[in-house]
Q: What sequence folds into this?
DNA sequence: CGCGCATCATGCAAAGCGTTCATTGATGCA
DNA sequence: TGCATCAATGAACGCTTTGCATGATGCGCG
C-alpha cells in the first residue's frame, strides 16, 4: 500500500514553485535536498506521472504538477486559518504586541508584515514603540515592549529569541569609483574613504564592529537618517556605505550605485525577534514571527531564513 | 520541533466523527486502534488542548476538535477532487463502466453510489448490464461488462477483486412466529418452514449454500422478485426469509418483522468488485470502488468494510 | 456486587521518513 | 574544455509513526 498524499507534499510543491529549485525549496522547508528529491520521486512514482521538468530554468510544472500546486494554494491557507483559530481557542484572541526596533531599515519589511498580520488578529493591539532604541531587550524587561527586533542574541538575557533571517551587508560605491573594479573590499580599502552610516552608536553597525574596528581602520565619517539620502551621497561620490543588500536591491537593479562584498566571505548580519519567555508560546506571537519570516522570504531578495 | 499537522490527522478526525469511536475509526482507516490513540495524544499535546471527550457516547468534540473537523470537511473533498483530476490527466477523463450484478438487493446501494459517481466522471459511460447474471465474471471475459459485483472471489479467475464490504444475513420471521423467541436460528429450525427467496439459482443463496445444504435441510420454497414483497409474505406468516441485514434495516426499525441471527456465529456474506486486471489501475475504476465503499459505509447499517 | 464486554491508554518491538555523506550525471558559463 | 551549479541516487543511521500485546477503566446485566 503506497503512502497517501500529505500536507508535507503540498508544502513541498508550494516551496518548489516559490523558490524555483529543489535545493532552495529544501532550505526553505528546513529539509535537505536529498529528502526532497526522494520525496518527489516517491510522489511521482505514486501518481505514475512526472510533476515538473527538471532541466529548465525557471522550473516548469507539468499539468499534474500545476493541479497539485492549485491544491496547495487552496488548502494551505485554509490550514493556516484553522491553526490560528485553534491558537485563539487556546490563548484567546486578544493581546498586545508592542514592537521595538533597533535598526532603521527594518521598517521596510516590518510594515508589510504588520499589514498582513493585522487582519488576522484584529483584537491584538499592534504598535511600534516610537523611535529607535539601542536596547530593545531592555524595553521588554521594563514592560514597555512585547517584542524586539535585534541583530544579536545575548544568551545571558532571559528572553526567547525567534530567528528571522540572515542577509548580506554590501559595500556601496559610486559606479565610477576606483574600488568598483575590485571583486570584494577589505577593511583597509575603507581607510581613505568617508563612511556614511545611520546616526546610531558604532556598536550597532556591523561593518564597524566586525570589520573596521578589528582591523584598526578608522575612516572619516558622515551620517544620514534615510537610506535614499545615503545612496544619493554615495552616488555623488561623497563617500561609501555598508548597507543590507535587500535594502538597496531596487537601486542596484537600476545601476544607481555599485555593490561589492565586504571581506573574503562577505559580511553578514542576522535578525532575531526577542520576546519574554512567558509570551513565547502565545499563538499570536508565533504567528507574527511566522508572518515576518514569510513576507520577508518572499519580498526581500538574497536573504536566507534562519 | 514538533511534527506539523498532516492530512493523516484530518482523516483521523473525520473518521472519528463518522464512526463515533477511536476503535471503529481505526478500522475505517485501516490502522490499529493503538496508532490512532497515539496520534490523537500527539495532536492534543501539540495543541495543548484536548480534541474530544473520551467518556461520552456519542463522542463529543471540544471547540478545538470542531474547528479541526471543519477543516477536514473543507480540505478533504478538495484533496479528493485534485486526486481525481490527476487521475484524469494520467488515464484520460473518458471510459466505460458497464456493471454486472448477481444479486438483486445490490441495487439499493448501487444506485446512490452511481449517482455520486456520475457527476465526478461525466465522460465515463456508466451502465448496468441489464438483468441479473449468475456469472458476472464471465461477462467480463466476453467483454460485455467492465465490472462485476460478486459475493465470492474465485482466485483461479484472471480478474482483480476489490473488496467492498461484509454484512450479516439474518433470518426474518413474523413478529408472532414461534421461533421469534429464540436468540438465534439453526439449520434444523428451517425444516418445517417455507423459505422465501429471490428467484435465483441456489448457489447464489448463501443461506442454502452455507447452512441448509450442509445440514441436509430442504424446506419448502417460494420466491419473489422484490424485497418488499418477500417481507410482506413473511409478515403475513406465509414463510421465513434470509436477507442481508442492511436490506431490511428500515423494516426492522418499524418492527414490521423480526430478525434473528443464523447459526452460532451468525451468517455473513461478502461483496467484491471484479475487474479485468488491465483496468484495475484506471483512475475512474478505483474511484468508483472508493465511492461504493464510502457511500455504503455511511448509508448501510451494520456492514464492515473489507 | 461481580462478571463480561467495550473502549481507550501504554510499553516495547518493527517499518517509514529524513539526514548525512558520497557519488554521479547533466547543464550552463567562461 | 574546465568549472560551478543543480539534481538524482544509494547506503547507513536516527527519530517518528505504527503495530502488537497487554493493562486500565467504565458500563450494563444478571
A:
Amino acid at each position: 500500500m503506497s503512502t497517501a498524499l500529505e500536507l508535507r507534499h503540498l508544502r513541498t510543491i508550494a516551496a518548489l514553485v516559490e523558490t524555483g529549485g529543489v535545493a532552495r525549496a529544501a532550505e526553505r522547508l528546513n529539509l535537505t535536498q536529498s529528502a526532497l528529491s526522494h520525496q518527489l520521486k516517491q510522489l511521482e512514482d505514486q501518481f505514475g506521472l512526472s510533476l515538473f521538468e527538471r532541466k529548465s530554468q525557471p522550473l516548469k510544472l507539468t499539468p499534474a504538477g500545476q493541479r497539485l500546486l492549485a491544491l496547495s494554494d487552496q488548502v494551505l491557507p485554509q490550514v493556516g486559518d484553522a491553526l490560528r483559530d485553534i491558537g485563539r481557542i487556546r490563548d484567546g484572541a486578544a493581546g498586545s504586541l508592542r514592537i521595538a526596533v533597533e535598526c532603521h531599515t527594518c521598517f521596510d519589511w516590518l510594515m508589510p508584515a504588520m499589514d498582513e498580520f493585522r487582519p488576522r488578529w484584529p483584537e491584538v493591539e499592534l504598535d511600534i514603540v516610537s523611535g529607535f532604541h539601542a536596547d530593545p531587550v531592555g524595553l521588554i524587561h521594563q514592560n514597555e515592549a512585547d517584542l524586539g527586533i535585534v541583530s544579536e542574541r545575548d544568551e545571558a538575557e532571559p528572553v526567547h529569541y525567534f530567528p528571522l533571517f540572515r542577509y548580506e551587508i554590501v559595500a556601496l560605491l559610486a559606479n565610477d569609483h576606483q574600488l568598483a573594479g575590485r571583486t570584494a573590499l577589505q577593511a583597509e580599502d575603507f581607510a581613505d574613504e568617508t563612511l556614511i552610516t545611520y546616526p546610531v552608536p558604532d556598536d550597532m553597525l556591523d561593518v564597524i564592529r566586525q570589520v573596521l574596528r578589528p582591523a584598526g581602520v578608522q575612516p572619516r565619517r558622515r551620517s544620514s537618517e534615510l537610506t535614499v539620502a545615503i545612496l544619493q551621497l554615495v552616488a555623488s561620490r561623497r563617500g561609501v556605505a555598508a548597507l543590507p543588500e535587500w535594502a538597496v536591491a531596487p537601486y542596484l537593479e537600476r545601476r544607481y550605485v555599485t555593490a561589492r562584498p565586504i571581506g573574503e566571505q562577505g559580511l553578514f548580519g542576522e535578525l532575531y525577534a526577542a520576546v519574554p519567555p512567558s509570551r513565547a508560546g502565545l499563538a499570536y506571537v508565533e504567528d507574527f514571527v511566522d508572518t515576518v519570516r514569510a513576507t520577508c522570504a518572499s519580498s526581500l531578495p538574497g536573504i536566507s531564513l534562519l
The mean pLDDT of chain A is 91. The longest strand of chain A covers residues 160-173. Residues 166-268 of chain A form a domain with the D-Maltodextrin-Binding Protein; domain 2 fold (CATH 3.40.190.10). Chain A has three domains: 7-88, 92-164+271-305, 166-268.
